[in-house]
Design brief:
By secondary structure, the protein is α/β, with parallel strands linked by helices. The protein is about 40% helix and about 25% strand. It is globular, with a radius of gyration of 17 Å.
């Protein structure tokens, strides 16, 4: 019988690439509503593969889940398209600070609201909320994303995901390549979001010190 308190259940998942290269071997964990859970491990340990399996993005990279189950709010993610999962509240921020670099910071954020078919009033309300959590983005709102710093691009990518009003935010290596003070700012904002809104967060990190602190 499903536990309504569990938003994500990963049970004995095995995954491969090209049906030949083993990437995951029996991964299991649960994430409860309102919880922050960190997947810790060195480069190549399978963290990114796990997150892509959760969002059903593995097939796009010739990957496949061969055994086990992944359930988001009781539903098998393998039977749902990634876009449907986003609309259902499971939103991932991929590794590498992906932004539309020819768009301004604010246009990037608006793209997240449009993706969930938000009204103009809702998008404006959400913009103010994101600027409250990431004040630096307000200062850079008219700047092309490609001309902002790595930390600002990471904040933009996270902010765009938050504009989709997720129930589960999945983050892949948010600290990678960023200065310690910027990493601290990002994690403090995520912790504040979790505390104030009850947002569930799954984060993969090599930086165990900062992940465990928050």
């Amino acid at each position: 019988m499903p536990n309504d308190d569990v938003i994500l259940a990963v049970d004995a998942v095995h995954a491969t690439y090209n049906h030949a290269i083993t990437a995951l071997h029996g991964v299991s964990f649960e994430l409860r509503r309102g919880q922050i859970l960190a997947l810790l491990g060195a480069n190549g340990a399978g963290k990114t593969t796990t997150l892509k399996a959760v969002s059903n993005l593995l097939p796009a990279e010739r990957g496949q889940v061969n055994a086990g189950t992944i359930r988001y709010e009781g539903s098998d993610v393998s039977r749902r398209k990634p876009g449907d999962l986003v609309r259902a509240g499971l939103v991932q921020v991929l590794e590498g600070r992906h932004c539309f670099k020819s768009l301004t910071v604010e246009e990037n954020l608006i793209a997240g609201g449009i993706g969930r078919s938000g009204s103009r009033a809702e998008i404006n309300q959400d913009l103010e909320r994101i600027y409250g959590y990431f004040p630096r983005l307000r200062e850079k709102r008219r700047t092309l994303s490609g001309l902002t710093s790595g930390g600002e691009q990471q904040m933009t990518a996270i902010g765009r995901a938050l504009m989709s009003r997720p129930r589960l935010l999945v983050l892949d290596e948010p600290s990678m390549g960023l200065a310690p003070l910027i990493v601290q700012d990002i994690f403090q904002s995520l912790k504040k979001l979790n505390r104030e809104t009850g947002l569930s967060i799954l984060v993969a990190e090599q930086n165990s010190a900062v992940a465990l602190r928050y």
